[in-house]
Amino acid sequence: MVTIYDIAKACGFSPTTVSKALNGYSDVKEKTRRLIKQTADEMGYYPNSQAKALIKRKAWNIGVLFQDGENIGITHPLFAEILESFKKVAESHGYDVTFISNKIGDTRLSYLGHCKYRQVDGLVIACTDFYSDEINELLDSDLPIIAIDYSDERVSCVTTDSMAGMTLLYDHLYDLGHRDIVYLHGELTYITLDRIKALKKAAEKRGESFNDEQLIEAKYYSVKTGYSVMKELLQRDERPTAVMVCDDFTALGAINASIDSGLSIPEDISIVGYDGIQISQLLRPRVTTVKQDAEKMGALAAEKLVRLIEQKDEERETLVMLPSIIIGDSCKNKE
């Protein structure tokens, strides 16, 4: 491995001057800097990340803590797009990205312990159980953090406006004449409770209400659960005329269950999803859904986290994005 001492010997400068030139110090003449950098490139020099971290007091490393209840991982249709956008922006600022878990080899660590072990400069948390003790240990720490689809005064957050999203879907169904509407929601996480609250307010604005029989628990991004819960729902003596589903993937299961039960969509029952992922518009019928701008969410999260890392006076804030509705072919007027 080529060191600064090898470069110093090759170009005739002291190791201190070489180090300053390679690390951008202003007290090195431009001609000298160019010569040293050219020599370093020709010799195949790569900076040692640990040494660079000691000099800069920064590791140029951002942690990513990503979990989902179905263990879909980074193939998750929505969060894969968010994290890819986040990664591109982080890398454009010179940062590497490291996935955070609670194990190093055979040794179990807390998430915060793993962050310290990897010397991350900041952390993005996405799609996880924000109520767990380990997550709260992170949120209470002094590590720069941004959370996706969450809101907490302890950290910065990027989220989509649940009130706007649920209102768009409810109003669409209401305007089509639907009153007997059921919501297949996900596990009782922060975002689920936020959406249920928003849905109830949307109904109240129209002089309607949502009772417990209209709220049925399913699972996020589970075609299997969407299918089984929808099958059970269709056994009711009076089935609903419209069903709102917590996400587009789970909606696929609900659609398949309806078809397998001999129903036609939207002639016999209307179904809407959430997230606006690509597959929802490739299905037949195309799913009416609310679109979250995943690419913009990831980019905003990365830009904010970089500012939190690099500008010590940067304040925490929650960035709220407005969703839009995609009108597909999965709903029709109630006759």
TrEMBL record:
Name the keywords, alphabetized: DNA-binding, Transcription, Transcription regulation
Could you confirm whether the keyword Transcription appears in this record?
Answer: yes
The protein's matches in InterPro entries, at most eight in alphabetical order, are given as: HTH_LacI (IPR000843), LacI/GalR-like_sensor (IPR046335), Lambda_DNA-bd_dom_sf (IPR010982), Peripla_BP_I (IPR028082)
For the HTH lacI-type domain, which residue ranges apply? 2-56
Say if the entry is tagged with keyword Acyltransferase. no
Pfam families noted in UniProt: LacI, Peripla_BP_3
Q: What is the superkingdom listed in this entry's lineage?
A: Bacteria
Give the GO molecular function terms.
DNA-binding transcription factor activity; transcription cis-regulatory region binding
Q: Could you identify this protein by its name?
A: LacI family transcriptional regulator
